[in-house]
Amino acid sequence: MKLINILFVFSLVGLAIATNSCRKEDGPFGRGDIYGTVTFENGATGREDEAAMAIIKIAYGTKVPSGEFNQMYLSFSDGTYSIKGLAPGDYYLTAEYTDKFNYKYTHPGFGITLRSKKSSVNLNFVLK
Amino acid sequence: MRRKILSLPVFIAAIILLVIGSQCKKSDSIIELEGGVDVQSRVIFDASWTFDKPHSNVNWESPYFDYSQTMLTGRFSMYGFSSKFEINDSNLTVNLNTWVKLSSFLTGETRDNPGDCGRSYLGVTYLDSAKTIVDPRSDTAWIKCNELIRSGTGFILKGTFTFNRYLPANSPSTGSAGDGLPITKPISIYCTYNGMKDFVGTPSRYRAGLTFRFTFKRSDFIDINSTRQYVPVPKVADIAGNIIAASNKTYGVYSRSLADEVTVITNLQLYKLH
Fold first, then answer.
1. What is the pTM of this model?
2. According to the 3-state scheme, what is the secondary structure of chain A?
3. What residues 16-35 of chain A have any CB closer than 8 A to a CB of chain B?
């Protein structure tokens, strides 16, 4: 009977590890999201103006820049963006914006770890 | 006793499950990375550089009748610097003191002549310094900038734009040639450094180029209700139809065949001997 108890405990632990593990494949097959606003430091106005049609780039499975990205998104006219359907895991995000005078505004990026299935992270970029 | 033995492992398993489960409820982590902004290479031009006028140009563009993005374009042939142009992006300093003679307006069409419509775009319908020197100072626009701001990979020059002037209150009716107050507005000029190259030859020179771009509203400088050119000392023999306007607030005619907003694009070439 004692053996049955031990087996029962181990199977419970195994089940817990199998079902509740945080580590899943990083990427777009989840329910988490990252959203926010992209602005840029406009030298002409002296303000942080909304960056319409800014490019937001995301790399899966890393928190540091590697030069390669898995997906790219565009911000709306008010500078807002949203990346939905992310699984728990590591991500690297950066953004860039080019104004009508061809001046390019960039950001070194963010390293992000989404830890739960329904993580919702507000991430605002201020491009320089 | 047997029940106790059974409940102990169950209790331990529950604790383990709780620990593992709680690990999943950790908050998300966000780390903002540090890194330099991707900027242009050093832009330092001091007084040792020479303005290369023959290879520079001052151009303007504005929508025709302001109904589409089909642009009317032209250039100015007479312009220069009142003092040496200098710019240094390491300590963010600039000295831009420049002028453009508006009657050197040029589109390559007959509208460029004194008294024709092209001249009215900038309110210098009859002004022709080479022919009838009426009020040379009203025939010139000045830009003075002493503030340099980095913006993304480019620069913004802040300063003032002086163009046209208010008419003295009594001049139109009396015909006196008094000079009015200049009209000066703040200006932001977008400056792009286009690079530098060493040219070996006779003589060997470093050559560098910059592009300046700014936009202004004509209505900020010209009385939009003015329909007749005011000329303080007209020479009727020179230009037929040269009429003294009675009610203008500023010099010049506000032509409506051009949009209110005019963009000026200047390509500046500089060189320096080895």
1. 0.78
2. CHHHHHHHHHHHHHHHHHHHCCCCCCCCCCCEEEEEEEEEEECCCCEEEECCCCEEEEEECCCCCCCCCCEEEECCCCCEEEEEEECCEEEEEEEEEECCCCCEEECCCEEEEECCCCCEEECCEEEC
3. 16-17, 20-22
